């Protein structure tokens, strides 16, 4: 990769480790990185098991380290990299993922593994004091206080790239959380598109297909988060994410439907001011914002043409249509391991729905059953979080009448089957 253009002294490049490289966020992140070889260098790539895609990425970005969760896939990747003459060290298994997340060679870790599986490696990055660009909201939902403690203790920096949280981050003054008056913030307003079923007759929801659920009107995303958008569990998880990221109590977080997905979220101040961040629904914008922060770099995203948009609309969410949103508010109020139980039950139910073994409406039912059957307990360690995760999975499996082996442990499944 070339030095800074113009022949002047090269600025120090940010050295990036990308967890979840083969996914939708991984694609967007590498697209931004490739636009700025003078600013960013890929030092590590990690994924579940997609050898072909990772090998292509390695040939293009030549990272020094690679990690795959799947041991057999890691062996195949070693062969491929030898043939491609890419001298990268190939790590494997959960320990290998945690190792690349804490590499001394990387200063920035982009956490984009989907699901609870992302918690372990992201926690390793926090403990190693990295600058963490967080897409993996589930890590914060499950880890909560423990994860935030690890960020503080490790001296890590957390920059949200979930589009809503990135928008809020951009609308808050720097250092607001260290100010006793919270800089006058009254409410955080998370926008949600309402997904593909916002207007679908309720009676039809039991028979919608996975492809219909994944056909998001505005965003192109991995299959798991697409289903979460259709149930609005995604927004529920984001409420919990916002609570931890911004230290906002439940009462200060509001969800508003905004079908156009142009206003990515808003912050309301005590003087009545409401600040919003707008943009095309393209994850390259929040990724570029966080990668370059506090500077700005081009992200390849077209300019927003307000006149062409003509109208932006807002409405309250229909809690009867989207029971998962209410369940997430309940889990946040219950505290402790309740969000981890909810998240785990949702992962099992979404995986079953995508595999044709559960109906769309079973997702909320399984999540409600898990929250009811498993009592919440305090969580202070990774083991405690994973224990709650396992209990939530087992309860959801029972509710969905799935055989035991259906729900795997947090480190095993790729619920999207993308790899
Ligand atoms: P995706 O399914 O497209 O990609 C998931 C990535 O995680 C893949 O690289 C896969 O190999 C890896 N992975 C899956 N299971 C793993 C495991 N057990 N161990 C190691 N790696 C594993 O998902 P995505 O849409 O890119 O989403 C990634 C994360 O970002 C999710 O937490 C999601 O909620 C969040 N997010 C995504 C978007 C989006 O637009 N896609 C927006 C906001 C937040
Ligand atoms: Mg989001």
Hetero groups in this structure are: nicotinamide-adenine-dinucleotide, magnesium ion
Provide the CATH superfamily of the largest domain. Answer: NAD(P)-binding Rossmann-like Domain
- How much is the radius of gyration in Å? 21 Å
Total domains = 3
Biggest sheet details:
7 strands, parallel
Give the neighbour order of strands across the main sheet: 4-3-2-1-5-6-7
Please mark out the parts with pLDDT under 50 across 5 or more consecutive residues, or reply none.
Answer: 1-7, 406-419
Number of helices: 16
Strand elements, count: 11
The dominant shape is: globular
- Separation of termini? 28 Å
Just name the CATH architecture of the largest domain: 3-Layer(aba) Sandwich
Strand percent estimate: 5-15%
Helical proportion, percent range:
40-55%
Question: Could you state the order of secondary-structure elements as H and E?
Answer: EHEHEHEHEHEHEHEHHHEEEHHHHHH
Level-1 CATH class name of the largest domain: Alpha Beta
Which structural category do the helix and sheet elements fall into?
A: alpha/beta
In round numbers, the mean pLDDT is 93
Description of the structure:
- The protein folds into three domains: 14-160, NAD(P)-binding Rossmann-like Domain (Rossmann fold, 3-Layer(aba) Sandwich), CATH 3.40.50; 168-194 and 232-309, no CATH class; 324-396, Rna Polymerase Sigma Factor, Chain: A, CATH 1.10.1740.10.
- Helix content is 44%, strand content 14%.
- The strands form two sheets. It has a seven-stranded parallel sheet with strand order 4-3-2-1-5-6-7, with helices on both faces. It has a four-stranded mixed sheet with strand order 9-8-10-11, with helices on one face.
- It contains 16 helices and eleven strands.
- The model is unreliable at 1-7 and 406-419 (pLDDT under 50).
- It binds nicotinamide-adenine-dinucleotide and magnesium ion.
């Amino acid at each position: 990769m070339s030095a800074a253009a113009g022949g002047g002294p090269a600025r120090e490049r940010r050295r990036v480790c990308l967890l979840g490289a083969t996914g939708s966020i991984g694609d967007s992140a590498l697209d931004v990185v490739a636009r700025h070889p003078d600013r960013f260098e890929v030092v590590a790539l990690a994924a579940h098991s997609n050898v072909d895609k990772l090998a292509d990425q390695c040939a293009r970005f030549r990272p020094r380290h690679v990690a795959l969760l799947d041991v057999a896939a890691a062996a195949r990747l070693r062969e491929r990299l030898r043939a491609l003459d890419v001298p990268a060290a190939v790590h494997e298994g959960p320990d290998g993922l945690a190792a690349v997340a804490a590499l001394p060679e990387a200063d920035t870790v982009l956490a984009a593994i989907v699901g609870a599986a992302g918690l372990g490696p992201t926690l390793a990055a926090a403990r190693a004091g990295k600058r963490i660009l967080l897409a993996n909201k589930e890590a914060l939902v499950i880890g909560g206080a423990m994860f935030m403690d690890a960020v503080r203790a490790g001296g890590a920096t957390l920059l949200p790239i979930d589009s809503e949280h990135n928008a809020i981050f951009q609308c808050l003054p720097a250092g607001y959380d260290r100010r006793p008056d919270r800089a006058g913030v009254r409410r955080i307003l998370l926008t949600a598109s309402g997904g593909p079923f916002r207007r679908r007759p309720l009676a039809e929801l039991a028979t919608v297909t996975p492809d219909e659920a994944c056909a998001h009107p505005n965003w192109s995303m991995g299959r798991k988060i697409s289903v979460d958008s259709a149930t609005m569990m995604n927004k529920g998880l984001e409420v919990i994410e916002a609570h931890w990221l911004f230290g906002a109590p439940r009462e200060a977080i509001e969800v508003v439907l905004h079908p156009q997905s142009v206003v990515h979220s808003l912050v309301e101040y005590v003087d009545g001011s409401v600040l919003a961040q707008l943009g095309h629904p393209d994850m390259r914008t929040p990724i570029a914002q966080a990668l370059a922060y506090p500077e700005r770099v081009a992200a390849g995203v077209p300019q927003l043409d307000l006149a062409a948009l003509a109208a932006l609309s807002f409405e309250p969410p229909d809690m009867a249509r989207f029971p998962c949103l209410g369940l997430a508010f309940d889990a946040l109020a219950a505290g402790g391991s309740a969000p981890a139980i909810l998240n785990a039950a949702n992962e099992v139910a979404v995986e079953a729905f995508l595999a044709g073994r559960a109906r769309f409406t079973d997702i909320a039912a399984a999540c409600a059953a898990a929250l009811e059957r498993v009592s919440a307990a305090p969580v202070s360690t990774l083991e405690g979080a994973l224990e709650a995760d396992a209990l939530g999975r087992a309860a959801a499996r029972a509710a969905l009448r799935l055989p035991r082996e259906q729900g795997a442990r947090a480190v095993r499944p790729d619920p999207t089957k993308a790899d």
